Prior knowledge:
The protein is of the alpha/beta class. The protein is built from 19 helices and 17 strands. It folds into 3 domains: about 1-55, no CATH class; about 65-95 and about 120-300, Endonuclease Chain A (Endonuclease, Chain A); about 315-480, Endonuclease Chain A (Endonuclease, Chain A, 2-Layer Sandwich).
Amino acid sequence: MVAxxxxxxxxALLFVGVAAVIIFxxxxxxxxxxxxxxxxxxxxxxxxLYLMFGVNYRNxxxxxxxxxxxxxxxHSEYDSTIKKLxxxxxxxxxxxxDFRPLxxxxxxxETGTNLSSGxxxxxxxxxxxxxxxxxxxxxxxKESIHLEYFHFGNDRGGREVLELLEEKAREGVEIRFLNExxxxxxxxxxxxxxxRKSGIEVERFTNSKQGILSLPMKLNYRNxxxxxxxxxxxxxxGGMNINNxxxxxWRDTHLRIEGNAVAALQATxxxxxxTSGGTLKQPLSYYFKVxxxxxxxxxxxxxxxxxxxxxxSSWPLLQMGYEWVLQNAKDYVYMQTPYFVPPESxxxxxxSAALRGVDVRIMFPEKVDTPFMGAANxxxxxxxxxxxxxxxxxxxxxxxxxxxxxDDYLSQIGTANIDIRSFxxxxxxxxxxxxxxxxxxxxxxxxxxxxxxKRLDPKGWMMRRKWYEMLFSxxxxxxxxxx
Length: 483
């Protein structure tokens, strides 16, 4: 009897506590009301589902404390080299005046200023080219190799990179790999144990070091980044993971960077690494290099802004960045994304841009790679086309690119999809490039993909759709937050 009373009291306290967290959250009121209704009608199931899928990590100290501790440790070890790279006054005066507010907005990153000049880079549009460059850079590494990947496959493409990494580890190069363990659950632990035995340091992104109490609530969160930093001098980021799909089968877009922007990629990796419980063998400054002269490259001496975002940072910067571009574009915005489940504010910005005469185009794959996502994408087509947004579906191989080009000046290449998961749940990182030459090149890449794409006709699109397809899309739209 007494035990039952105690259990009732404890459950009541849990219910009140969860309800208080929902009420005091700064998120969308409709979402909060839905969760309050769920935990009221189905208390046990509702509370479990909320703790797994509904918690908003932004501005909650309980969830941010581990991340904050890592950032504080990071800042405590700053020296003049790191301050010069991450804390010096950003060169916003070099940016075209109408895009300076965007750079200022995106600069609100806890790990330091992320806009830098003097960068050279190559835009990579085939997996074969990425594999070729990455393998070459790994072979030539002398000090350290840091990798942070959503997928690192146990297949031909993944094993070829892994074997080379193991060889470099035996040579004495420090190698650290941050493993997105939930998304890669089918890969056996022996795969990662083999890495460790060769001398590679491996940390799991979701693990008990981040706090045993918060661990169950982080199962819905993913590290969706694709980052490599070699010797603090060469950085990679973009849409391509490491496996057969990306190296040999799919169409994607990636960057290989040399220059001071690599420091921001390094800081992004080290933030995730230290937050996940990883350690360093050398002082922090060992992993950062200053470039006094631009390296040679396809594009030389350019402004790059590396923008990391994650669920426990203060602001949804990538979503804000997308919406700013749509709200301020004058002539055109061309976007590529494989997954399109946007929040309402993005939809409003998108439709508003098209309605005021901006040439807004979005390119999707004709066929997607995961169940349900094709129907989920299509749930938004009609209202976008009604507003004047031009929608293209690219044929042939699956396109996984996440890119934006705007007004012959701004280019964006990164890891974030245009969906609620990327904007609010995942760890992501996008590169913003402020440069006319680069924008024209990215526009040309978009036009080349248009050659094997079909533009959807709004009237024809609606006439072709079956009622059950529309119903299925609408049902999926209800689950936009967890797709």
